[in-house]
Amino acid sequence: MMKLHVGPKPVLRSTMSSMVTEQIRDAILSGVYPPGMQLNEKLVAESCGVSRGPVREAIQRLLQEGLLTSEPHRGVFVLELTEHDLEDIYFTRDAVERAALRRIVHSGRGEELSVRLMAVVESMSQAIEQEKWTEVAALDIRFHSELVNSAGSQRLSRLYATLMAEMGLCLNKLIGVYRGRGRLLEEHKLLVNLIASGDAEQLDKAMAEHLQEPVDTICKAWEKSRQTAAQSAVTDK
């Protein structure tokens, strides 16, 4: 007689690895694992309640995503964004998103997309009013992901997906200075209106400016932080 398995199905190793990857990724993006922190494979495994195998696989995946860096003879560390990293991430975003917009406009799908994007903007407006900056950052990513995925290119969407994790780190840097981005909502509304109108030239220009603004904002915040630290060092002497 055939025996039936009545208990829970065993967790596949690949599933366990994916779950651990998500836990570590969330810890990095939420700041639980701060930039520059060294990951101890044994401690992470104990924290996640798993063996070291899935943790090792998760670390390899996050190294590929760019959230972790490996230093020979030292170990694995959470990425510390530099100005070069920031500029490179947004350089790639610029190429992908403007390519997506060109296809959307030329295909005549702009008006349909603008309706979905405006719903995201309305949610963003509410989050800004309530000063829920983490939610604002998530909606920012949702807006741009919806835009790229609407181009109907699987390869473009895959390329953009590889940027998502590093983009999360960038937007975490912006959370502290979102208050200074008074034009955030207006910029997204402008993009929606231009997508609906199909004005390709103005849309391309607006997107280029929109993606440059976060780079300038974060770099200015970093420079201010460096100046403050330098002044404190002089005062302490």
Topology:
Elements: H1 13-30, E1 38-39, H2 41-48, H3 52-65, E2 68-71, E3 75-78, H4 83-107, H5 110-129, H6 133-149, H7 154-175, H8 184-197, H9 200-236
Antiparallel strand pairs: 1-3, 2-3
What does this structure look like?
GO terms for molecular function: DNA binding; DNA-binding transcription factor activity. InterPro entries: GntR_C (IPR011711), TF_FadR/GntR_C (IPR008920), Tscrpt_reg_HTH_GntR (IPR000524), WH-like_DNA-bd_sf (IPR036388), WH_DNA-bd_sf (IPR036390). This is DNA-binding GntR family transcriptional regulator. Residues 14-81 form the HTH gntR-type domain. Keywords: DNA-binding, Transcription, Transcription regulation. This protein has 237 residues and is mainly α. It has 2 domains: 14-78, Winged helix-like DNA-binding domain superfamily/Winged helix DNA-binding domain (Arc Repressor Mutant, subunit A); 83-233, Four Helix Bundle (Hemerythrin (Met), subunit A) (Up-down Bundle). The chain contains 9 helices and 3 strands, in the order αβααββαααααα. It has helices at residues 13-30, 41-48, 52-65, 83-107, 110-129, 133-149, 154-175, 184-197, 200-236, and strands at 38-39, 68-71, 75-78. The chain has a 3-stranded antiparallel β-sheet. α2 packs across α3, α4 crosses α7 and α5 packs antiparallel against α8. The longest helix is centred in the C-terminal third of the chain and has 37 residues, at 200-236. It is globular, with a radius of gyration of 21 Å. The N and C termini lie far apart (83 Å). The model is unreliable at 1-11 (pLDDT under 50).
